[in-house]
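Revision sheet: structure tokens.
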Amino acid sequence: MQRRSFIARSAASLAMPALARAATATPYTIILDWFINPDHAPLFAAKYCGAFARAGLDVNLIAPTDPDLPPRLLAAGKADGCLSYQPQLYLLVDAGLPVRRTGTLIDKPLNTLTALGASGIKTLADLKGKKIGYSVAGMETVQIATMLKSVGLGLKDVTLVNINFNLVTSLQSKEVDAVIGTYRTYEDIQLTQAGLNPVIFYPEEHGVPTSEELILLTAPSGLKNPALPRFLAALKEGTAALLADPEKILAQFLKDNPTLNDKLDIASWHALPPYFAKDPAALNAQLYLAYLDFMVAGGLIKHAGPLSDYAVQVTG
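Predicted:
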């Protein structure tokens, strides 16, 4: 879900440089889920290809100082939208926060459960008697339990260790035998680049419903803002430009964010295109309802409301 603090850089060093602003453009503020990284490529592409400007928007992308803040700042009227994650959406609504999913940047899950080749773990069944590291109590423990159940195991068959987002270091130090929460487009690549031969298990292949990784949230008061459908249409245009020429967008992205000009972030950039939503406004209702049922069944939320309490499809 959240990007990991162990790879975080200061928000100040990643602040987006100001671009030329059209005098008549409508200001539109988006708070990112965390520090700027390749997951946000469609947003940058929409800026770089001029899609936001053509839509009459002056889009301001803000990296938060705390990844827990964006939905709360959005609900408080401090932004027009923010980025979050589909599983997190249900928790926010269940807690009474007035937010709705209105768009999607990454429409497939990125999270994995990962071990190292040297551990001898080759299948999920091999986790019996092993230590599994997690970072988010509740959500990740339910996901682990669901995955284990698919091979006839339960939480009683493993030892859970809270590793506080120290995913890679916990594996390398052998503090744990496996971790949940690695990204297939980041930490799993990092482990491969380090020659550690990661053994990767995909939650959606072991009982956990498929979910969208990175979504746009809007407050109910902003659903009728005429800038919202224009923003989503421009984001779609930007995604198309990114997929058509990722190297061109990457060159500008690295120029603006030089601290990301490294082997890992560039590899992550190239791994992400298959995961970007080609139509950010499109809503997969069945996917959202299936994950809602999973959240209720796992005891993660108290009750299930109608789909409209969580997600809407914005039309122009």
